[in-house]
Amino acid sequence: MPSACPRCGQLDMVQRVAGIVASQHSQLSWELRAPPPPGARVAARRSGGFPWGWLVVILLITLPFDVLVLVAFAIALAVVISVVAVVALVAVAGYVGYRLLNRHVIAERQAERDRQRAAAVRRYQHALHYWSQLDHCHRCHGVFLPGNEWQYREVTVRGAVAAPFHAWALASQLADYADRQHAPDIVRADDP
Ligand SMILES: [Zn+2]
What is the model's pTM? Predict the structure, then answer.
């Protein structure tokens, strides 16, 4: 059930932001969307396969020459493998030594990274909680959080709407403000 737009006072042009993002592929839905969760990876594109068939044909035509090339290649490969093996051995030995000497420092850094990551995920989910409640007024071209009287104390201006591309920033500000305040009249994300 949509709420009246705080700017024009009408509700005929009001639509839930999450609904617009889920149902449209427009400039507006792109601006309104929430970012991917922290740590999410974007899949890399793959290029076309290697033309193995052509390689076989060329090898068959130039067979005598290929033998010489193969011998030279095998020698070069043996040299490269030896060098790589030595470098890898030194690197592994150095890494193991470093781990043994700095076990506590590494564990602390890892714990700190885990804490920061957990905090980022929690902040994201809290912002998502408000983002999913945002409405968009197509007449005023702006987004707003319906209800939640507490937001007018610090976060939003009564009677105003935010630009669509500020939707996620607005949700983050609402979440941060709700986090800072512990007053009982403020709705928390983890409340049922
Ligand atoms: Zn409006």
Answer: 0.58
